Amino acid sequence: MSLFEQHRQHLIDTEAPLAARMRPRSLDEFIGQDHIIGQGRLLRRAIQADQISSLIFYGAPGTGKTTLARIIANTTRAHFISINAVLAGVKEIREAIATAQEKLGMYSQRTILFVDEVHRFNKAQQDALLPWVENGTVILIGATTENPYFEVNKALVSRSRIFQLKPLQEKDLERVIDQALHDGEHGYGKLKVQIEADACAHLVNVANGDARALLNALELAVETTSADADGVIQISMAIAEESIQQRAVLYDKEGDVHFDTISAFIKSLRGSDPDAALYWLARMVYAGEDPRFIFRRMLILAGEDVGLADPNAVVIVHACAETFDRVGMPEGRYPLAQAALYLATAPKSNSVMGFFDALASVEQERESEVPNPLRDSNRDKHSFGHGANYLYPHSYREHWIAQQYLPNSLQGQVFYQPSDRGYENQIQQQVAQRREAQLAAAVEGMALPEVLTFSPTDSGMDRWLQRTLSQTGARLGEVRDRLFSLAHLQRHHVILDLNAGSGLLTWEALRRVPEGGVYSCVWNSADAIALQEQATMLPELSRPVILQVSLQDLPQQLADDLKCDRIKFDRIIGRNVLTAEDKLERVRSLLPWLHPDGRLLLAETVSRQTQRLYRLLEANLLSKKLLQRLQDAEEAIYHNAADPLMNWDADKLLKQFQAIAPAASLQLEHYATDLRVTPALLDRWFSAGGDRPSYGDHLSRSLSHSEVETVRKAMTQLANRVVSWESAIAFYQIPAPLL
Fold first, then answer.
1. Which PANTHER family match (predicted)?
2. Is residue 249 domain-resident?
3. Engineering a disulfide at 401: which of 396, 463, 496, 612 sits with its beta carbon 3.0 to 4.6 angstroms away?
4. Residue 378 phi/psi, 5° resolution?
């Protein structure tokens, strides 16, 4: 670096705006965005391991997109090139590619190309990047305030991992102020700056999640305020208000925020929430949205979502739009709000969507002729009889007569379904009655269809109907989906699977948290090896972290492995993990590993509520005495106080959980599954058991050998029969305890 270059860099470092000087230089200095760079998150692991692939950072201004790219530049061993899409063109791209090729060919060094405001590149410029990203010559890191799925070349997006940065939280912005006031090298640590609590709160609130706007306001406040006699710069509420007076609302009339806000407004109207509708309307008006655009969308909603539930809706919205055009702004806000409130409080019906069913019928069905009575009779009534037999409704009582108006091929077709809301509720019965009369009229004049074919019973079809029913996989899928629906996962969450032997929950978790991480606990080496082999198909950074350890020893293993990373799990999930006696202690030991907003979710089969086999038998197959003894013997299985699988009750266990986590909850789901009782299944029931006694073993404790054989013979009557198998699963949700 030349002397002049050093001098220029020194001036930038010392005289640049505060926001530029305070830009974090490492992950430890970075504030906010824990959902993507928090401990254990995918992006943090990738940066620390220097295994960056092509990335696109998407978010509002001041959320840290460029800062993250600079942190990567400071930590990577790759050559780093930075360009701005506003200033650069194809020439700069070619120069960067040439440098990357030289570094790769001469030094085997990768090159990271950071493109700020990447959405500013036109299609030709983005296409110029594509082949070099595709063949690995450069690793692209793009930063954009626009939705990359709309503004960036689809081919580039498909080869990049997208990370969305969110506006900073208030607590994060408070840390930004504190950091700036105490940093002696880049901030105001060498000055005596005191900021009042309400002034600080005002700056944080009006900054609206934008760290750059916050630092700019703080800089203006400090630089324009003189120190008092003691050399202290006092930042009062009045000074803070002068430094940042109006909240910056992110709103681009052609971008994501525009479409997202109008979507929120329309959905609030459709959902009959007048408060939310007024809020989103105010957001748009405040940001300068064209009121005529808003009226146009409300007119569409009046037809689509209110429809005939209130036929006046479209009239009133149109009148409000005309009034707005007459009076203009700012008074035009009154009819704007009036139209929104009318739509939000109006009854809703989307029965007009029946038109699109009719349209689909026109597109799919063979074109049908207009029925003869409905044809125009003015031209050829005498030649072809067009219009003959048409019944003129006004000639009849109530100006209506039952006759068909649809083509013959669509007789009985229903497109319009009146709702039971508003005005439509009044006409619903009338429409139904008239349809019934029309169908009756059609049937009376309709010939019976001919019997054209006859065929013997299809033996293949008969075999298909008698196929073996096996719903185990479907049941497991239901339990998995139920558990994940309760989890409400975010893409950045870190998950711990407590019983990952089958991989059922682990693989689904990996799909749902691509920017987070999954830790999988397996209880034996065979399951660990199987899981590792399956995981080799995934990229290294996307694989689960496999912990081979018993559930009892898991907390200590976590402490040994994760104490340096300070990882807390957003969700801990498990299926049938509470198989030991000390169920409460197992749960208690896991709760400290939850994030403060985290939850432990368990799906536990309630063995006590499993299907009883004696209930499947017909009463006349056994004597009354033996049937009663069988019932007592089988019930004893499910009331064995020494068996940890059987000696618990879902509600009682919930009360134990609530003693350590008062907000713990239970949802008990009952299932009935079709099960074919095969001879092999019967054999398993009565064969000698291994680690756990079989059904026959349990019966032999209360029944004689001959009685067990009698029961077994009676059970053979179930062979190849399909029975309804009842079971119950308890879904527990246990939130992290309050500290």
1. ATPASE WRNIP1, WERNER HELICASE-INTERACTING PROTEIN 1 FAMILY MEMBER
2. no
3. 396
4. -70, -25
10 class by beta-carbon count within 10 Å (0-12 exposed, 13-18 middle, 19+ buried): exposed
Round to whole Å and give the CA distance between 485 and 573.
12
Q: Which amino acid is at 200?
A: C
Residues 317 and 368 in one domain: no
Same domain, 601 and 627: no
- 670/727 Cα distance (integer angstroms): 6
| Residue 631, Cβ density class (10 Å: 0-12 exposed, 13-18 middle, ≥19 buried) | middle
User: Count of alpha carbons within 13 Å of 20, Cβ hemisphere only?
Assistant: 8
d(CA 656, CA 343): 49
pLDDT tens column, 102-134: 888 888 888 989 988 888 888 888 888 888 888
Centroid of chain to Cα 77: 36
Do residues 309 and 323 both lie within one domain?
yes
**Residue 487 domain-assigned (yes or no):** yes
Contact yes or no for 139/52 (Cβ under 8 A): yes
Here the CATH number for the domain that contains residue 150 is: 3.40.50.300
Residue 326, SS3? helix
Q: How far apart are CA 687 and CA 674, in angstroms?
A: 23
Residue 687 sits in the same domain as residue 575? no
Last residue of a domain, one of 347, 365, 395: 347
- Quick check: is 704 in a domain? yes
Same-domain pairing of 336 and 358? no
Residue with tokens 């001098």: 7
Torsion over CA: 551, 552, 556, 559 (sign): positive
Sequence-distant (6+) residues with CB within 8 A of 604 are 575, 576, 577, 578, 650, 729, 730, 732
Residue 473 pLDDT more than 60? no
DSSP 306: I
User: To 10 degrees, what angle do helices 256-270 and 274-287 make?
Assistant: 150
Would you state the pLDDT for residue 93? 86
pTM: 0.60
Cα-based distances in Å from 613 to 183, 389, 399, 671, 695: 74, 68, 66, 16, 10
pLDDT tens digits along 61-101 = 888 888 898 888 888 888 988 888 888 888 888 888 899 89
Give me the count of residues in the chain: 739
Which pLDDT score is estimated for 433? 56
pLDDT range class, residue 7, cuts 50, 70, 90: low
- Residues 14-42 have a mean pLDDT of 85
Residue 370 CA to residue 48 CA, distance in Å, equals: 73
Q: In this structure, what CATH number is given to the domain that contains residue 480?
A: 3.40.50.150
In this structure, what is the dihedral angle of CA atoms 316, 321, 324, 330, given to the nearest 10 degrees?
90
Q: pLDDT: is 551 or 431 the higher one?
A: 551
Last residue of a domain, one of 165, 189, 213: 165
* Dist CA 22 CA 182 (whole Å): 11
Look-up: residue for tokens 């060094």? 109
Residue 582: CB partners within 8 Å, gap ≥ 6? none
Beta-strand relationship, 111-116 and 139-144: parallel
Distance (Å, rounded) from C-alpha 12 to C-alpha 15? 5
- CA of 19: how far to CAs of 22, 24, 210, in Å? 5, 10, 11
Structure tokens at 513: 């948290």
Work out the number of other CB atoms within 10 angstroms of the CB of residue 321.
21
Domain identity same for 479 and 581: yes
In 3D, which of 600, 500, 594, 589 has the Cα closest to residue 553? 589
- Give the domain extent around 710: 611-642+679-719
Contact 64, 165 (CB under 8 A): yes
Q: Residue 148: pLDDT above 90?
A: no
DSSP H or E stretch at residue 342? helix 333-345
**Number of structural domains, the chain?**
5
Whether the Cβ atoms of residue 126 and residue 156 lie closer than 8 Å to each other = yes
Burial of 618 (0-12, 13-18, 19+ CB in 10 A): exposed
Residue 248 C-beta-side C-alpha neighbours within 13 Å: 20
